[in-house]
What we know:
alpha+beta, four-stranded antiparallel beta sheet
Amino acid sequence: MAPSRGTTLVELIVALTMLTIGVLGLIGTTVIVNAYLTRGRWGSFTAAESSRRLEILRETASSQGCAGLSGGMAAYPASVTQRWSVSLSSLSADLVVVMSSPRARPETLATTILCP
């Protein structure tokens, strides 16, 4: 009997199974990486917008005094909202900015400024 050349059906099935497992692993990794990238983009966006809002509030306090500060809300595309609150005391103001989206957990940034 002469040695056979080529591959058998069993070898092809094993090779395809191994290839399928590898491709499924790559797909799973891609989904995880995409989730981390989305979370990173959200974190960067909320940090930048919250910092911008705090700067606006600081400028208002500097020019008009802490009595000129008030809470509020702003809307962004994709149902993203920003809410800020101001708690005044005799010498300072506590500022809290909360960014929220239906697809991510809310992000909060808070600071205290001295009233002039």
